[in-house]
Amino acid sequence: ETGVTQTPRHLVMGMTNKKSLKCEQHLGHNAMYWYKQSAKKPLELMFVYNFKEQTENNSVPSRFSPECPNSSHLFLHLHTLQPEDSALYLCASSQSGGRAHNEQFFGPGTRLTVL
Amino acid sequence: DQQVKQNSPSLSVQEGRISILNCDYTNSMFDYFLWYKKYPAEGPTFLISISSIKDKNEDGRFTVFLNKSAKHLSLHIVPSQPGDSAVYFCAASAGGYQKVTFGTGTKLQVIP
Predict the structure, then answer these.
(1) Does B43 touch chain A if contact means CB atoms closer than 8 Å?
(2) Is B35 helix (H, G, I), strand (E, B) or coil?
(3) pLDDT, position B26
(4) Which of A45, A98, A109 sits opposite B99 (nearest CB)?
(5) Which residues of B touch A60 (CB under 8 A)?
(6) Is the pLDDT of residue A66 over 70?
(7) Residue B89 and residue B41 in contact, taking contact as beta carbons nearer than 8 Å
(8) Beta bridge partners of A38
(9) Which whole number is the average pLDDT over B67-87?
(10) Rounded to whole angstroms, what are the CA distances from B56 to B49, B50, B64, B76?
(11) Do B2 and A42 touch (CB under 8 A)?
(12) How far does the CA of residue A37 sit from the closest CA of chain B (Å)?
């Protein structure tokens, strides 16, 4: 595997379900990100992790719970979601520090539908 | 309140001609600007960037121009190729922070 991978690619869940999104980066980066992209809206940053530590939470509701066990893996745990949470969830990674952290490498995303 | 705006949702250009994608921003603290390209079913990929201390950066067929007084940047692709057909996102960051603010994207179609 190369680059940034995300599983599953598609997910349909009910509002009472609990599911998790997984992201893995094979680039040796030490920063990882979760973004949300809703229809006709810009990418919205959700969380940032540097060296496994969360450094940014962009006012994300608690029904989204991130986990970063190491610099290569990032999870997004989902529970009691709402239909308006249906979106494309993108994971990204970068080097940390300097301008390198702005040049982020993205995975293909997980298309989430909440019924 | 969108701080990075791409007012043209789509653009069609003939192969071999120049494509010009535009972006405006409102936050005067932004000092680093990026363009990403996205193909269907893939994540965005970094294309080119420019620091606010410059007004132009060139990489092969891609050139980004920055007009700080107008808070405007543009991406020029010349000559345009069918493989350039994608959605292009403008993005910006401030003060070395990791938070990157994205625009809504412009879908470019290059017609053979």
Answers:
(1) yes
(2) strand
(3) 97
(4) A45
(5) none
(6) yes
(7) no
(8) none
(9) 97
(10) 10, 7, 6, 11
(11) yes
(12) 9
Question: In the structure encoding, which two tokens stand for residue B14, read together?
Answer: 């003939």
Please indicate whether, in this complex, the C-beta atoms of B89 and A105 are within 8 angstroms of each other: no
The structure tokens listed for A7 are: 């599983």
Are residues B24 and B92 in contact, defined by beta-carbon separation less than 8 angstroms? no
Q: What is the mean pLDDT of chain A?
A: 92
Q: Given the structure tokens 């940390």, which residue do they identify?
A: A96
pLDDT of residue B11: 97
% of chain A with per-residue pLDDT over 70:
99
Per-residue pLDDT at B111 exceeds 80: yes
What number is the average pLDDT over the span A40-60?
89
- Hey, is the C-beta of B104 within 8 angstroms of any chain A C-beta? yes
Q: What's the burial of B90, exposed, middle or buried (CB within 10 Å: 0-12/13-18/19+)? A: buried
A109 lies within 8 A of chain B by CB: yes
**CA torsion sign, B96 to A5 to A9 to A60?**
negative
Say if the Cβ atoms of A42 and B45 lie within 8 Å. no
User: Which residue does chain B place closest to A95, by CA atoms?
Assistant: B98
Average pLDDT over residues B64-77: 97
Query: What does the pLDDT read at residue A39?
Result: 86
**A26: contact with B, CB 8 A cutoff:** no
Per-residue pLDDT tens for A68-114?
A: 999 999 999 999 999 999 999 999 999 877 777 788 999 999 999 99
Q: How many CB pairs under 8 A join A and B?
A: 61
Radius of gyration (Cα) for chain A, nearest Å?
A: 13
Task: Judge whether A20 and A28 are in contact, CB under 8 Å.
Answer: no
B105 near A CB under 8 A: yes
